[in-house]
Design a protein that fits this description.
This protein is an alpha/beta fold. The protein contains eight helices and nine strands. Bound molecules: S-adenosylmethionine (SAM).
Length: 267
């Protein structure tokens, strides 16, 4: 899978993309992460990429022409837009999804990561300052994505989060089963993990984990997922696929009481 990232600060990506799993996946040819310096497409001698907002107000706005040229180059139509300085040349209809990092975008979720992971290529735009000129958003952005209800100084960290979450879903990047029962994979949080020693500073692990009884281990883990979700994120249970046995277990642990959201199946 290929990611093209348009940014004013490509050096910020050193570290997150040059270490650990993402580094190995790139070396193995499973991922191609290409950084594009938006400033390289600035048209004036000062290489300026932002300007004052029309109508006044605080902050600067990213200039439309610079970002548009960068995007056009990434999508293989750089020469066309350079030749047509006064015309808005539409982006090719057959293009990878162009994603704008934005606090005003759709909330990023595991479900969205799974959906994006189906595309062979994604283009991510990192905004900075007050953001990008609205006309570029209108002509060239397919989807705006927010990584949370807070405001970052720039879209780089958001792009790193999205690339990381999508990349690890690519076949071969992680061991096959690693993502199966993870938090959010099916709207339930993950069960707790333990490693050696079996007793650490007087704290034993749950006995079932050394029982050798696979069915019991499986059931215990599943119940831990239900319990954790009930205790920490009961809102997720509304969209989880639950068996009647799961519902009964949850009710025994307080689901549907006045303190926790109602079990919709109970009403
Ligand atoms: C300072 S923010 C701009 C905030 C903008 N003026 C607003 O109020 O919506 C600069 C850039 O950071 C990125 N950004 C900030 N918060 C983000 C979030 N929660 N999710 C994704 N991107 C974000 C966007 O690319 C944005 O253009």
């Amino acid at each position: 899978m290929r990611f093209d990232i348009l940014t004013l600060f490509p050096a910020m990506f050193t570290g997150p993309f040059t270490e650990s799993i993402l580094k190995r996946a790139q070396q193995a040819g499973l991922l191609d992460i290409v950084l594009h310096d938006i400033r390289a497409y600035a048209t004036d001698k000062h290489k300026s990429t932002d300007d004052y907002p029309f109508g006044g107000g605080a902050g600067m706005v990213m200039k439309p022409e610079v970002l548009y040229r960068a995007l056009a180059e990434v999508l293989g139509m750089g020469a066309v837009v350079q030749a047509e300085a006064e015309v808005l040349v539409p982006l090719p209809a057959e293009r990878p999804p162009v994603l704008l990092m934005s606090p005003a975008g759709e909330p990023f979720t595991q479900g969205m990561a799974e959906e994006l992971a189906q595309a062979p290529r994604l283009v991510l735009i990192c905004g900075h300052y007050e953001g990008i000129d609205e006309r570029v958003r209108e002509c060239c952005v397919d989807r705006e994505i927010s990584i949370g209800d807070y405001v970052l100084t720039g879209g780089e960290l958001a792009a790193m989060v999205i690339v990381d979450a999508v990349a690890r879903l690519q076949p071969g990047v992680l061991a096959a089963a690693s993502t199966d029962e993870e938090s959010h994979s099916d709207s339930l949080l993950e069960y707790p993990h333990y490693t050696r020693p079996a007793v650490w500073r007087g704290q034993p692990i749950p006995a079932v984990l050394t029982s050798g009884h696979h069915a019991n281990v499986h059931r215990w883990r599943h119940e831990q997922r239900l319990l954790r979700t009930l205790q920490r994120r009961p809102d997720l249970l509304q969209r989880a696929v639950l068996s009647e046995q799961d519902r009964e277990y949850l009710r025994r642990h307080g689901w549907g009481t006045s303190l926790l959201p109602d079990d919709p199946a109970a009403s």
